[in-house]
Model the fold of this input.
Amino acid sequence: MRIALAQYNYHIGNFEYNTAKIIRGIHEAKSRQANLVVFAELSVCGYPSGDFLEFKDYIDKCYRAIDEIALHCQGIAAIVGAPHRNANPKGKPLYNAAFFIEEGEVKQIYRKGLLPNYDIFDEYRYFEPATEFDIVSYRGKRIALTICEDLWNLYDNPLYTQNPMDRLAEKGADFMLNIAASPFAWDHGGERKNMLSRNASRYRMPLFYVNQVGAQTELIFDGGSMAINAHGGITHEMESFTESMLVIETDEMGRKTGIKPSPEADYDKKIENIYKALVSGIKDYFGKLGFSKAILGLSGGIDSAVTMVIAADALGVENVLGVLLPGQFSSDHSLKDAEDLAKTLGCPYHTIPITDITARFEENLKPWFKELPFDVAEENIQARTRAVYLMALSNKFGYVLLNTSNKSEAAVGYGTLYGDMCGGLSVLGDVYKTDVFGLARYINRKDEIIPVNSIIKPPSAELRADQKDSDSLPEYDILDEVLFQYIEKRKGPDELVQMGFDKKLIDRILKLVNTCEYKRYQTPPILRVSPKAFGMGRKMPIVAKYLG
Done:
């Protein structure tokens, strides 16, 4: 049997677009002599659809799309993902399902059994877990069809009480097919490959895996669809972050040696993948919302420089406007670094001094501030003045403002609400400062795009004289390690001290993180590239005493 794996980018709720793309894929697969073409999880409506799944009309449109798709399944079968109504009045109203379509009609519906309900996943909110699993028979082959999480329950401490693949294996199958909507995180690719390889080895049968690509608001999907032989060796792997179709002859799988998954990728590969993910995230956020132009404050620092390069890669240099907003404490070298970057990239830029405006604010506030010393209040006036200019240009000319704050700053609240924290999309909000430096080095791997001075100078907000980030924060290599252990690894204060960190340092950092939760509730959507990002996957109360 010849199977076509369709690694496509879908648009949530855009049924006309998704249906047309699936139909084109069916015809392409047929032209390449495929017998079966396989699309990703919930490909008909897009993943994740969120509370749209609670609308009757939304589900009706899914069914109508499947009817239209079925008309094109003549001489070829297709597997598409879509919600399926639960006929039982008890339980959740929907299943997360895979529809097997042949000769113009739906012949079989597989329902997902394992529903992830952690981090960014919230499937049990909408779907009923299936408890019965059947083999799909087609052209003399018995197919163990599963959906994403259904294959993830084979480790020493399983999360679920059932294992769909065990049940399917008992019924006898020639190979496994898994359709997925598995989002990118920098550590997830290796884990995913190991999981798929272990399944193939455990059940002693080939495995074909289809994932989607593209971005849906915060979530970025890297694809990485693949085929694995019965010994766990990867025989085919599709390019990440790229739409494509791969046709494989199933009977040849036994003759292909394959490559066992390697240990986790090195740091350079991690940074390269983060860069590609962020480009994909910006491109789809703008494209799917109908925007084309971005604006950002260009300070001469490394965060805005990296953001501008990534945005220019995603949108085109002509569509990214940098705005230099020098104030009383802006250094000449920062202005030059910002100008040099824009000129090197070929991006348009404007310069709007803010010194007179901030001085007027301070003068008007004198009756209340009186003789009080200069402090964070005056610093924040500068940041908010810059935001007013950026948002005015955004409103007038249709730009989307890109937020340039990094994850280290977001974690400890090192930013100004309604100032440098504003924007329509946060590009680096899930990238620690140390990895921002890694991205800058990756960008400059061939030519000097980002001025070297932006990379080597001490980071500074330049909101007061001779200011450096290290005046208020620990050095970033130490700060980021503590933040990673606390946020990603969920290590509490006692565990962190046992790991060798100074108790006073831990108390200080964790207090900053937890007392600044209210700020993170007001940040733009953050492109997710880590296993634990701020936003939909990290649910923390604002009003709480623990670690406060």
Notes: The two ends are 60 Å apart (CA to CA). The mean pLDDT is 95. The chain has two domains: 2-250, 269-469. The first strand starts at residue 2 and ends at 7.
